[in-house]
C-alpha cells in the first residue's frame, strides 16, 4: 500500500521535550513532514503544539464496488510527559481517552472506513484505548522498549521496539463490501543486523556525525577509564526492573564524587542497552538474552557517554529520611512493570514488600545494616531530573538543593578514572522486592 507510506506521519513522544517545548516547536517547523499531537496542546491558543496534526483523512485505491477506502489517523502522546521530560508550563497534555474518542468521532463523521492511532504510550495505555474507545482498528505504538504484537478485542496493536533494533513491516488487507469494512493484518519483524546501509541514508548520517568524528573527538571517546573484572549489565529490562550492577556503579559514583551519604539513580537514565550478547540462565532454569560489557573489557569515555547520553547534572540534596523513603516507594510503585523510575541506590539497603495491602519499604538501612532514622536529615546525590520530581516521584520536591555538579556521565568518568579496576557483582542485595 504505497499511498499509505506517503501519508504516515510522526507522533510526538516524551523525549521530543527533553530540551523544552520551544526547541521542539523549532524542530517541528524544520521538518519536511507533519507531526501528530492530538492531545498535546499549546495552552495559549488551544491548538496542537507547533501547528501539528490533530487528525488526517486520506483515500487509498480499492477494487471494491464501494469505491476508495478512507483511512483516518490521529496521534497520542503519553500524559506522563511532564514527569518524564521537560515540556514546561506552556503545554497541556489532554486526557488520552477523551482525545481518542473525539478523534474517532471526528474521523467517522468525515467518512473514515479505517482508523489508525499512532501512539507514544505504554502497552497498558494502548490496551486501555482499544478497550474504552470503539472504532480504532489499528494502534501503531512506541514508548515501550520491547516489541509487542497483539489483539485487544477487535483492535490490532503493534510496537517495533526501540532504537531501530527491528524494522516492523505491517501489511493490511482491507476489504469493503456493502458498507462493511474488514481489516486483516500481517506483519514481519526484520532484525537490524548484517544489513547493508542505504547509501543515501548513510550519507545523511555521516553529514550530521561529521563534527563528532574528528581526530580529537575520536581520541577523547577512546580514552580508557577502567578495566572490568566482572561483566556489567546495561540491558534496558534489567535497568528498569531489578537491581543492576551498572546502576549500582553510577549510584556509587554520584554519591562518592558529591560527598553524599546516599546515592540514587533512576534506571531510565541509562540508555545504551549495549554490550556483548550472552545467554543468562535464571534460577528457574530458563534462559534469556542479556546485554553486558564483558569481563576484561575496557570502559571508555565513549561507552560512558553512550550509556548515559542525557546532559543532566548531578545534584546534592538534603532531605528528611522519611521523605527519602517515601520517594523511593514512588520509584518502585510500578513494579513488576518495567519503569524508568526503578531506583538503583548507593549506601542503602532496602526491602520493598508488595504482599502488603499497600506496598511499602519495610527494611530501610544504611550499607552497614543500621536502620535509617526516619526523623534524621540525610544528604543524597542524584540527578537534577529526579530532584525535580521526575518520573512522578514528587516527594523529592521536599528536599533542599545544596549543590550542582557536572553531568552524571562526567561524574561517572571522574569516579572511574580514580578506580581504574572495576568489580561489581551482578547483585548485591541493595534493592530486594518481596512479591
TrEMBL record:
Entries under InterPro entries matching the protein: 5'-Nucleotdase_C, 5'-Nucleotdase_C_sf, 5_nucleotidase/apyrase, Metallo-depent_PP-like
Similarity-based family: Belongs to the 5'-nucleotidase family.
GO biological process assignments: nucleotide catabolic process
Alphabetic keyword roster: Hydrolase, Nucleotide-binding
Gene Ontology MF terms: hydrolase activity; nucleotide binding
The protein's name in its UniProt record: 5'-Nucleotidase C-terminal domain-containing protein
Gene3D superfamilies hit by this protein: 3.60.21.10, 5'-Nucleotidase, C-terminal domain (3.90.780.10)
Domain 5'-Nucleotidase C-terminal: 239-393
SUPFAM superfamilies membership: 5'-nucleotidase (syn. UDP-sugar hydrolase), C-terminal domain (SSF55816), Metallo-dependent phosphatases (SSF56300)
Pfam families hit by this protein: 5_nucleotid_C
Protein origin, superkingdom: Eukaryota
Keyword Heme: no
Amino acid at each position: 500500500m504505497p499511498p499509505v507510506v506517503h501519508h504516515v506521519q510522526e507522533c510526538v513522544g516524551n523525549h521530543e521535550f527533553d530540551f523544552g517545548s520551544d526547541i521542539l516547536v523549532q524542530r517541528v517547523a524544520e521538518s519536511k513532514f507533519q507531526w501528530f499531537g492530538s492531545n498535546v496542546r499549546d495552552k495559549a491558543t488551544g491548538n496542537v503544539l507547533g501547528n501539528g496534526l490533530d487528525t488526517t483523512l486520506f483515500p487509498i485505491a480499492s477494487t471494491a464496488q464501494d469505491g476508495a477506502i478512507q483511512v483516518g489517523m490521529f496521534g497520542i502522546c503519553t500524559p506522563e510527559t511532564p514527569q518524564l521530560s521537560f515540556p514546561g508550563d506552556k503545554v497541556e497534555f489532554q486526557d488520552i481517552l477523551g482525545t481518542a474518542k473525539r478523534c474517532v468521532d471526528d474521523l467517522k463523521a468525515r467518512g473514515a472506513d479505517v482508523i489508525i492511532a499512532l501512539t507514544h504510550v505504554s502497552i497498558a495505555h494502548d490496551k486501555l484505548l482499544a478497550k474504552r474507545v470503539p472504532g480504532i482498528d489499528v494502534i501503531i505504538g512506541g514508548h515501550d522498549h520491547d516489541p509487542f504484537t497483539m489483539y485487544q478485542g477487535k483492535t490490532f496493536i503493534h510496537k517495533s521496539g526501540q532504537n531501530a533494533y527491528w524494522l516492523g513491516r505491517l501489511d493490511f488487507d482491507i476489504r469493503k463490501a456493502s458498507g462493511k469494512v474488514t481489516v486483516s493484518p500481517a506483519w514481519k519483524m526484520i532484525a537490524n543486523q548484517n544489513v547493508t546501509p542505504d547509501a543515501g541514508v548513510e550519507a545523511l548520517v555521516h553529514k550530521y556525525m561529521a563534527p563528532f568524528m574528528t581526530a580529537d573527538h575520536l581520541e577523547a571517546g577512546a580514552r580508557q577509564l577502567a578495566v572490568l573484572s566482572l561483566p556489567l549489565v546495561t540491558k534496558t529490562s534489567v535497568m528498569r526492573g531489578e537491581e543492576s550492577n551498572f546502576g549500582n556503579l553510577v549510584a556509587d559514583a554520584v554519591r562518592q564524587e558529591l560527598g553524599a551519604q546516599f546515592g540514587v539513580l533512576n534506571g531510565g537514565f541509562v540508555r545504551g542497552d549495549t554490550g556483548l550478547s550472552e545467554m543468562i540462565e535464571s534460577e528457574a532454569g530458563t534462559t534469556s538474552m542479556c546485554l553486558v560489557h564483558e569481563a576484561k573489557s575496557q570502559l571508555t569515555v565513549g561507552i560512558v557517554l553512550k550509556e548515559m547520553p542525557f546532559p543532566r547534572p548531578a545534584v546534592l540534596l538534603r532531605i528528611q529520611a522519611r521523605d527519602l523513603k517515601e520517594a523511593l516507594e514512588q520509584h518502585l510503585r510500578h513494579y513488576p512493570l518495567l519503569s524508568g523510575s526503578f531506583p538503583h541506590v548507593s549506601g542503602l539497603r532496602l526491602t520493598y514488600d508488595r504482599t502488603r495491602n499497600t506496598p511499602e519499604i519495610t527494611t530501610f538501612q544504611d550499607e552497614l545494616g543500621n536502620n535509617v532514622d526516619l526523623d534524621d536529615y540525610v544528604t543524597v546525590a542524584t540527578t537534577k531530573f529526579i530532584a525535580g520530581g521526575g518520573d512522578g516521584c514528587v516527594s523529592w520536591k521536599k528536599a533542599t538543593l545544596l549543590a550542582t555538579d557536572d553531568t552524571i556521565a562526567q561524574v561517572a568518568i571522574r569516579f572511574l578514572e580514580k578506580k581504574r579496576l572495576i568489580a561489581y557483582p551482578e547483585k548485591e542485595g541493595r534493592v530486594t522486592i518481596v512479591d
